[in-house]
Specification:
241 residues, Rossmann fold, four-stranded parallel β-sheet
Length: 241
């Protein structure tokens, strides 16, 4: 099984450990992993800002880079939502390559969904001690139906799930939303941090780095340097090697 790994811009630039953890996981389950060196962005920032031609150009680049893969996997609900939905239901309607994007969308998966519903894994290599609380990202939850999959994987690793109040509420990141409406975004993120702390868990886990950077940034700016913030892939993949 040839699986393309779409690393994502944020992971590549801000926390490559998530990409390496995803790579270890896919190899652990016997996948032949392809990581195109030329990959960049899924096109979502341009799409959200109205730069549709830029978004189309980047989407076509992704299509070309992963055309030969049986599946494409991303450790991100946000980028996955863009390639599975925006390209098919908006950007390429009426375009000659629309059918190719439909085919790509059918074999594109967010990481936890791929592990649980395609590979149907029964074990994970990593171990998690203690409890964690999980933040559901908007794109993963609402566009892709990712809810139980990462929790299932974390429990396989031994984690207890201490659900926070409002786990499904937005953290306030929303890409350009946090830039355009900074005060509202800050309040939303503060609410998320307060709910996470109230859960009693020492670690906040998520599946989208944008959310995690937003939450971690707010925690640190308000003096909380103890609460850990991690992508689920980092926890379930185990050590390097």
């Amino acid at each position: 099984m040839k699986v393309g790994l779409f690393v994502t811009c944020l992971v590549d630039l801000s926390r490559p450990s998530i990409g390496f953890a995803t790579l270890r996981l896919l190899k652990h389950y016997g996948c032949e992993v392809v990581v195109p060196e030329t990959q960049t962005c899924c096109g979502q920032p341009g799409y959200n800002s109205g730069a549709r031609d830029v978004a189309r150009t980047l989407a076509r680049k992704v299509l070309a880079e992963f055309r030969g893969c049986d599946y494409v996997v991303a450790p991100s609900g946000s980028c996955s939502g863009q390639l599975k939905h925006a390209t098919v239901h908006d950007l390429f309607i009426g375009e000659p390559d629309h059918a190719e994007f439909v085919a790509l969308s059918e074999r594109w998966f967010e990481l936890s969904d791929f592990l649980v519903n395609v590979l149907k894994v029964q074990e994970v290599p990593g171990r998690v001690n203690g409890s964690v609380t999980y933040h559901d990202s908007c794109s993963g939850l609402r566009e892709l139906g990712v809810k139980m999959q990462p929790r299932y994987l974390l429990q396989m690793a031994g984690a207890g799930i201490a659900e926070m109040e409002g786990a499904e509420r937005c953290c306030g990141f929303g890409g350009t939303f946090s830039v355009k409406l900074g005060e509202i975004s800050t309040r939303m993120c503060e609410n998320k941090c307060e709910a996470a702390r109230a859960s009693g868990a020492g670690t906040i886990v998520g599946g989208d780095l944008g959310c995690l950077l937003n939450i971690e940034g707010r925690l640190r700016r308000t003096g909380d340097h103890a609460t850990r913030v991690a992508h689920f892939a980092e926890l379930i993949a185990g050590g390097e090697g």
